[in-house]
Design goal:
Sulfite Oxidase, Chain A, domain 2, 3 domains, 5-stranded mixed β-sheet, 5-stranded antiparallel β-sheet, 7 helices, about 25% strand, disordered N terminus
């Protein structure tokens, strides 16, 4: 109908689209579940895109034309005699015009769809943010101790002990961050278990919680890279959930499955060896941000995220280790992914060199710095928080003018020192000493 009206007069079609847009916006404002300003934005974007589309298409349909030379158009039309139809100029019409029409129509559909989708994404994000802000995370049954004095060195430019949520690295396969309503969400524990069960978000919050400081790292983090961070996590211990389910003999893998189908798997023994592997619901004292897995995610100390850190968790499946591969394994990454001992230089001047080192579950025993290929000098370490967290370090020196080459290495709690051999991130994480150049005036 709008197309017919527009063919006669563009303003009639545009008015119709504007009316439909207004009705949609009014409905969004009247519905408290519609997302408020986000839904309004979605409606306005879609309406404007529709009017623009109509204008472009009508322009192509009625494009350059001239009167037929075989007939003369009367000065005025009457009910019984219509004006002679316009005939497309052979020099600029035909197949080419039809192709342009189809291209513009397709492009307009894409633009309108993208605008509407973008608006809906904003609406969903706003609604989930409002839900998150209303959630009260319960007091954990087992609290993490306060960081000891000296755990934070206070050196400008040095990575903080706890990375703020909005600065924490994000690596995942989601093109758009899933906006999961916790009221409709549930966690299913299934597979090779005696007592499969399902938990709502409220039930998960009601269980005993553990709080723990854990450093996470991505397997694709280059030597000296920033895809690593430390946070204070809170949630339900994975061991508690598995014990409730009753793990069957032969169930050698825990497979996390996201709401978007992503999977990551690790040995069942890791979940039961006493480390603080958990289904986390909070990060640095607040409900998980949507970009970091709200309403729940897996946090497993000592393992790279690609085999463990399933965000937007929907299912925990017990399987045989050799039976199912997580998402990244068929794509060339190692089946097991323990985090390697690593260290990084964050600050370098003529007076101080400082950085962080990490070896989750093993802790950091020593950090050493070498300047210009000389002897290794032991750095001063910040007070340890736990074996699962990174540790700050610094070395004071009096640099001579000129260019210097500075390298760092760490030794973990087992006595293993970082190798100098450089390897790529694939298939199981990069290795080597972080090395930089510094010019001192």
């Amino acid at each position: 109908m709008l197309g017919v009206l527009s063919a006669r007069r563009f303003l009639l079609g545009a008015a119709g689209l504007a009316t439909m847009t207004g009705v949609g916006v009014a409905a969004s404002l009247a519905d408290p579940q519609a997302g408020g300003a986000g839904s309004v934005a979605a409606g306005l974007v879609a309406g404007c895109a529709g009017i623009l589309t109509l204008w472009l298409l009508m322009g192509l349909l009625t494009g350059p034309a001239r009167s037929s030379p075989a007939r003369s158009s009367p000065a005025r039309s009457s009910p019984v005699q219509a004006p002679a139809p316009a005939v497309r100029d052979p020099g600029g019409g035909g197949v080419a015009d039809r192709k342009r029409f189809l291209v513009v129509a397709a492009a307009a559909v894409v633009v309108a769809g993208a605008g509407g989708l973008g608006g809906r994404v904003l609406a969903g994000r706003k609604r989930i943010d409002e839900i998150r802000q209303a959630i009260r995370i319960p007091r954990p049954a087992r609290r993490a101790p306060a960081p000891p004095a000296g755990a934070e060195l206070g050196i400008a430019g040095l990575a903080p002990l706890y990375v703020p949520n909005d600065e924490f690295y994000r690596i995942d396969t989601a093109l758009l961050v899933p906006q999961v309503d916790p009221g409709a969400w549930s966690l299913e524990v299934k597979g090779m278990v005696d007592r499969p069960f399902e938990l709502t978000y409220a039930e998960l919050l009601a269980m005993p919680h553990t709080e723990a400081d854990v450093t996470l790292s991505c397997v694709s983090n280059e030597v000296g890279g920033g895809l690593v961070g430390n946070a204070r996590w809170q949630g339900v211990l994975l061991a508690d959930l598995l014990n409730r389910a009753g793990v069957q003999r032969g169930a050698t893998q825990v497979l996390g499955r996201s709401v978007d189908g992503f999977t990551a798997g690790f040995p069942t023994s890791v979940a039961l060896d006493g480390r603080n592997a958990m289904v986390a619901v909070a990060m640095n004292g607040e409900p998980l941000p949507a970009s970091h897995g709200f309403p729940a995610r897996l946090v497993v100390p000592g393992l790279y995220g690609y085999v463990s850190a399933t965000k937007w968790l929907a299912k925990i499946e017990l399987t045989r280790f050799e039976a199912v591969d997580g998402y990244w394994i068929p794509r060339g990454w190692a089946k097991e992914g323990p985090i390697k001992t690593q260290s990084r230089i964050d600050v370098a001047s003529g007076q101080v060199i400082a950085g962080v080192a990490w070896a989750p579950t093993r802790g950091i025993e020593r950090v050493e710095v070498r300047v210009d290929g000389g002897r290794w000098q032991e750095a001063t370490l910040a007070a340890p928080v736990s074996d699962d967290t990174w540790r700050q370090w610094f070395l004071r020196w009096d640099a001579a003018p000129g260019r210097h080459v500075i390298a760092v290495r760490a030794t973990d709690g087992t006595g293993e020192t970082q190798t100098a051999e450089r390897t790529d991130v694939a298939p199981d994480g990069a290795s080597g000493h972080h090395t930089i150049q510094l010019d001192v005036a």
